[in-house]
Amino acid sequence: MNPVERIPTRWDVLDERFQAVSGDHMVQRLFDGGRWLEGPAYSAAWRCLLFSDIPNDRVVRWDEVTGRCDVFQTPAGYPNGRTIDRLGRVVTCEHGHRRVTRAEPDGSLTVVADRWRGKRFNSPNDVVETSDGSLWFTDPSYGIDSDYEGHRADPELDGCHVYRCSPDGRVKRVADDFLRPNGLAFSADERRLFIVDTRRRHLRHFDVGPDWTLRDRGVLAECDAGSFDGIRLDREGRLWVAAHDGLHCFDQEGTLLGKLRLPEICSNLTFGGRKRNLLFVTATTSVYSLALNVTGAGPTTGPATG
């Protein structure tokens, strides 16, 4: 079992409604050997957490039963964000190959999307699945800006956008006015979509129509510590957003309720464990975890497929 470092949990309560949120008195550091960690995804079937060490071009696996951290895959295409779909398959954004892939049960790899109108993506960054089986992903240019998180290359597209890939493989651009779209998450009923624009240091929100069309509602929240990155929702509809000083927690009206302070720049987060009340956070070099008295959001019935 890997040695686990523990640090005191630090909560900043900025709204009285956040006083109900609590958990472990100590945050566990599960792993500390990365360069820039991202893309945490918890598999209930495997009882493990997969996460990316992008500059080192590898995927690391933390085993919930043994506490071990082992290299799961390398080389790995400079992976960034990932999700576990409703069939338990791992869907990954690959900076190096500039695509979104899915690992099938037999171990084969399916390319979900690598182009829009014949042009290669920049470097897909984060991905979520909706109840109709569509995959929504952001496509900033971090993987082609330099050789640090991928391979330096000239962009083929006219900017950094947000896309939806339907179950039949059709790719549609759903938002085209971001500078660096990054983390994204749906509300549990899939009637609202939240997307981070890291370059602009804010979080935007959209209404989702019955045919999966988006209506822009503008900026929901501004970051007061560096910038935002990954985002997830809990069962009560609160938004947990990775920032430079830890995780920021907002209500769905954009009020900052409180913060979970962590000692490194945070990149992303996910809820896992048997009760979905284990919070996992990827930061600069480390993965942090603590058990909460709140649980991660689960999907319900969303809009009709379009």
Describe the secondary structure blueprint for this structure.
Blueprint: E1 5-8, E2 10-13, E3 26-31, E4 37-43, E5 48-53, E6 58-63, E7 69-73, E8 79-84, E9 90-94, E10 99-103, E11 109-113, E12 115-116, E13 119-120, E14 127-129, E15 135-139, H1 142-145, E16 161-165, E17 171-175, E18 181-186, E19 192-197, E20 202-208, E21 214-222, E22 231-233, E23 239-243, E24 246-250, E25 256-261, E26 266-272, E27 278-283, E28 287-291
Antiparallel strand pairs: 1-3, 2-25, 3-28, 4-5, 5-6, 6-7, 8-9, 9-10, 10-11, 12-13, 14-15, 15-16, 16-17, 18-19, 19-20, 20-21, 22-23, 23-24, 24-25, 26-27, 27-28
Please indicate the percent range of residues in DSSP E strands (runs of 2 or more). over 45%
Helix content: under 10%
| CA-atom Rg in angstroms | 18 Å
Biggest sheet character: 5 strands, antiparallel
Topology, number of strands: 28
Describe the structure.
- This protein is an all-beta fold and 306 residues long.
- The chain has a single domain, classed as TolB, C-terminal domain (Neuraminidase, 6 Propeller), CATH 2.120.10.30.
- 1% of the residues lie in helices and 48% in strands.
- It has 1 helix and 28 strands.
- The strands form 7 sheets. Strands 1-3-28-27-26 form a 5-stranded antiparallel beta sheet, with no helix packed on it. Strands 2-25-24-23-22 form a 5-stranded antiparallel beta sheet, with no helix packed on it.
- The longest helix is centred in the middle third of the chain and has 4 residues, at 142-145.
- It is globular.
- The model is unreliable at 300-306 (pLDDT under 50).
